[in-house]
Amino acid sequence: MKLSLKKRAGALKSETKSIRREGNIPAILYGSGYAPEKVVVPGTEFEAILRQLKLKNHQLATTVFELHIDGANKKALVKDIQYHPATYAIEHLDFIVLDESKAVTVKVPIQIQGAADCVGVKLGGTLRQVIRALKVSCLPTHIPAEFQIDVRDLGLTQSKRLSDIAMPAHVRPLALMSEVAVVVAKAKGAA
Fold first, then answer.
1. Half-sphere exposure of 156 (CA within 13 A, CB side)
2. pLDDT band at 34, cuts 50/70/90?
3. Which tens digits make up the pLDDT trace of 125-175?
């Protein structure tokens, strides 16, 4: 995903209010060995990217952005989003600048496959996703978009663990792989 950013002074609160009134988003870039830099993200461009990510069923946390700032190109991940409490409009973005030679920690979403065909659900059970994202460490070029767990063969009270996820060779999980990721629970009152 590509974004064109502009530098900003960021010294005054009135400047950030003005940026938001124009429909843009104040942001900051930072990273290991990178001096923090205040920038402006075009609001309509970023909103279009968010809509596109929702359509593809991908998460923002694993999307690497190619940022263009005054002729320089940088790759970055969105590390934090601050929303307005009432309108839910994006108020601020934090980008972490990536170094291709250094590992980065990201939360990769876990997608459930075959929920409609799950044996346990057909028998009256309820499918519960216990863990929705798995924290991993890898180089920026190896960040997976998502992990998938197939639940078609799960019966009542059966579960799949994080260890059932096919882990790419260059990706190191930062969680106990023995933890339950998804379970088919019996309905309340069922024998």
1. 9
2. confident
3. 999 999 999 999 999 999 998 999 999 999 999 999 999 999 999 999 999
Rounded to the nearest angstrom, the gap between the alpha carbon of residue 3 and the centroid of all alpha carbons in its chain is 17
CATH number, domain containing residue 58:
2.40.240.10
Report the 3 state secondary structure along 122-175: HCCCEEEECCCEEEEEECHHHCCCCEEEECCCCCCCCEEEHHHCCCCCCCEECC
Q: Are residues 62 and 27 in the same domain?
A: yes
Share of the chain above pLDDT 70, in %: 95
**Which of 97, 118, 151 is the last residue in one of the domains?**
97
Rg (C-alpha) for the chain, rounded Å, is 20
Domain that includes residue 45, residue range:
2-97
Amino acid at site 168: P
Question: Quick check: pTM over 0.90?
Answer: no
- For residue 131, count other CB atoms closer than 10 A to its CB: 16
Amino acid at 23: G
48: Cβ contacts below 8 Å, ≥ 6 apart: none
- Coil, strand or helix: which one is 99? coil
* The two three-digit tokens of residue 51, written as one number: 């809509």
Residue 190 lies in a domain: no
Q: Cα separation of 85 and 78, whole Å?
A: 20
Adjacency order of strands within the sheet including 180-185: 126-129, 180-185, 159-161
